[in-house]
Amino acid sequence: MRWAEAHKVAVAETYIDNDISATSGKRRPEYARMIADIRECRRDGVITWHLDRLHRNPIELEQFIILIESTGADVRTVTGGDYDLSTSDGRAMARVVGAFARKESEDKSRRIKSQKRQRARDGKRVSGGRRAYGFTDDHTQTRPEEAAIILEVARRALAGESLHSICVDLNGRNVPSASGGHWTRIVLRRIITSGAVSGQVEHLGEIVSMGDWPAIISPAQTTQLRKMFLN
To answer: Which end of the chain is more exposed for a tag (fewer CB within 10 A), N or C?
Structure first.
């Protein structure tokens, strides 16, 4: 807003897609709304921090260029200057910026994947986010009441009982699931076939090493459960 005020440009609307990267491939509702407003001539220009905040996908950039050419809307950036997409020079510059942004994104993705692979090989937990059922928040210790459920379910499943039957029993006993609600076969299968519950590191669907946290069931049990429910 300070940039707009300094350049005496009126801001009629803001479009913010929080926590949705231009490179994620996920639909960006606010970006889609902005495009619709430009297409319908409700907006005559765009101000963004840098052009790569709008696009890091060449196809999306080309679609944006076509839209700007057809509507005559202005494109201004706070840190990268203005882009006159009605000229070949402006379009070329936008494409160069987009290409370098794409390369930067791919390099970053490659580094992250490499770091995750190395963590997995070193026996470190790869995934973060929600607490894993059966473990404390830092994943260094088990939660006895949940570990007991995992151990019980694993034993019953290995004995031939169906996951549906086990779910019915757990729900009938009002045992809270990982999310606090009812148990489902999908959730139950995901937990008991995870390498994590036997103290193993799983990366991209494969068990790659022993982890640095306590096990609830044995690796042999995990191997058998994975054969039963993942093959």
So the answer is: C
Instruction: Tell me the pairing of strands 81-83 and 206-210.
Output: unpaired
- CA 192 to CA 86: how far, in whole Å? 58
Q: Each residue of 122-158: b (16+ CB within 10 Å) or e?
A: eeebbeeeeebbbbeeebeebbeebbebbbebbebbe
**Mean pLDDT computed over 159-183:** 92
Say which residue the tokens 């191997």 belong to: 223
> Which of residues 126 and 201 earns the better pLDDT score?
201
Note the pTM of the prediction, 2 decimals: 0.51
Residue 54: predicted pLDDT: 74
Q: How many CB atoms lie within 10 A of CB 169?
A: 15
| Cβ neighbours for 101, distance < 8 A, ≥ 6 positions apart | 51, 52, 55, 56
Closest CA to 74 of 10, 140, 153: 10
Indicate the Cα dihedral angle 13, 17, 22, 24, nearest 10°: -160
